[in-house]
C-alpha cells in the first residue's frame, strides 16, 4: 500500500530519489490548519533498487537537522512503572530527573567532541520544562562567572534541579516553538505552564512565536490523533525549511518525532527507513538532511561561482565533436 508523504520538504539519511506518481490531500488535519500541505503518493520500489539509488541535490537546497529527544523526565519513570500515571496531575509539565541531567551532560560532551555544536546556527525547542532543560543543558553556554551581565538561558535551580545558571554566551539563539510539542491533550505531563513563568525560568529563550500566554492547545478530555501529529509535524518541517539557517538543532519529544518522521524514508532501504522513524531513546540525537525538491526555498547559492570570469571562448570538447560529426549526436 503506498504511503502518503509531503513533497516539501524531504528528509534523507542517505541519498535517494523519490518518484512521485500522483497527488492527493489527506482527509484528517487539525482544526487550526486552514490549508493542508500538498502531498505526494510514492510508488513502491524493491530493496535492491533503493539500496542502489543515488541522488544529487544543490547544496543551497539542503539543510542539516540535529533532532534530539529530551532526557529522562519524572513522567518517564512513573509511566514505566504504571502507564496510568500519565493521567496524574502530579506529573504536570514534568522536569528532568537526576539521571536525565546525567544524560544531558553526556550528550553535551558528545556534541562538543564531535564538533556538532560548531555548525549549529539555531536551536528550536518545544516549550515544556523537560525539553527546555535538555536544550539549554546540551547546546547552551558554560556556567556563569562573576561580572557576566547577559541574561542566562536558564536560571539556577529551575525545576528543583540543583543546577547552576546556564549562560547564553557563545552559543546559538534558542527559539521556543509550539508546533514541535508532544502529543496534545489528556496527559498533564504534556501541558505547558504560562509563558510568563517560563520567561522567568529561561530568560534568554525567545518565546515571541508563541501567541498565547496560557496553554490553549492542550485539552483535558481530547487527545490529539496520530494523524494530526503527522500533519503538524509536516507543517513544522516545512517551516524549518523556509528559515535562513542551514544547520538547526531541534529538541522535542518521542511521540512527536516518531509520528512526524514516519512519513519519510518509504523509498529507502529498510535499514535507512528504520534510522529515520524508529522511536528515540531519552536524550538521543540523530542528524538528518532536509532537501527542497519543490522550489519552496528562495536562497541563492553562496558557494557556487559563475565561471567565465574574465570572459573567453569555452566551447566544451564534446559539443565541438557534435558539430564536427554533423549528426547532432554526442560521440
TrEMBL record:
GO terms for molecular function: phosphatase activity. May play a role in carbohydrates metabolism. The lineage of its organism: Eukaryota, Viridiplantae, Streptophyta, Embryophyta, Tracheophyta. Gene3D superfamilies: Phosphoglycerate mutase-like (3.40.50.1240). InterPro entries: His_Pase_superF_clade-1, His_PPase_superfam, PGM_Phosphatase. The gene is LOC107461028. Belongs to the phosphoglycerate mutase family. This is Phosphoglycerate mutase-like protein 1 isoform X1. GO terms for cellular component: cytoplasm. Transmembrane segments: none annotated.
